[in-house]
Amino acid sequence: MRVMVIPAELIHPQNRIDGVTLARLKEGLRLWKTGDFDKIVVTGGLFLPQDVQTRTAADLMAEWLTQHDVPFYKIGIEGASVDTYENVRFVNDYLRRNHPSTMSSRWTVVSHPTHIRRFTVSCRALGIAVVPAPVDYRLSWIARLGETVAYLLHRFDPLGEGRMAERHRKD
Predict the structure, then answer these.
(1) C-alpha angle with apex 58: 66 to 126, nearest 5 degrees?
(2) How far is CA 100 from CA 30, 67, 92, 96, 167, in A?
């Protein structure tokens, strides 16, 4: 099965997709229209308090894709993850549960190049190859610094099982 994975960035209050997530969705839609994919898996959970964000990022992304003519049955929804580590592990679990006979060990990941680097580290730890589909939106220097630190953390803890990753999820 040819799988495309689109991770969410953030969600704005009142369940609105942010510009970065929208850029990823638009690129994913462009790639979908090539006919080269069997499944799009959108991934991202609740990032904000439940009185501000009542629907998961993945649900909002799936809704956007269906509004742009992607058949709902072609979309996989992973709505529990809150970071890149969980994106990778939970998408892998979703595919194993729902598509065991056609499980893919190669995913096309639609995101910023710096995020794809982190995604790749975690995927490799699970034996999954990543085909990058970069969306090159502008990152501030502080965001680039954060991505560099996050990349180093992924190198030392590729599956997010250490104390740093667990602590980050609790914050």
Answers:
(1) 120
(2) 27, 28, 10, 5, 32
Report the predicted TM-score, pTM, of the whole model to 2 decimal places: 0.91
Residue linked to tokens 């704005």:
12
Tens-digit pLDDT profile for residues 103-145 = 778 899 999 999 999 999 999 999 999 999 999 888 888 888 8
Q: Which amino acid is at 60?
A: L
pLDDT band at 168 (very low <50, low <70, confident <90, very high): low
The pLDDT value recorded for residue 144 is 82
Q: Classify the phi-psi angles of 69: left when phi > 0, otherwise alpha if psi is within -120 to 50, otherwise beta.
A: left
pLDDT per position as a tens digit, 66-75: 999 999 999 9
Phi and psi for 108 in degrees, rounded to 5? -90, 125
58-62: long-range contacts (C-beta < 8 A, 24 or more apart)? 58/8, 60/8, 60/11, 60/15, 60/16, 60/17, 61/6, 61/8, 61/17, 61/21, 61/25
CB 131 within 8 A of CB 108: yes
Rounded CA separation 70/119 (Å): 24
How far is residue 130's CA from residue 4's CA, in Å, rounded to a whole number? 10
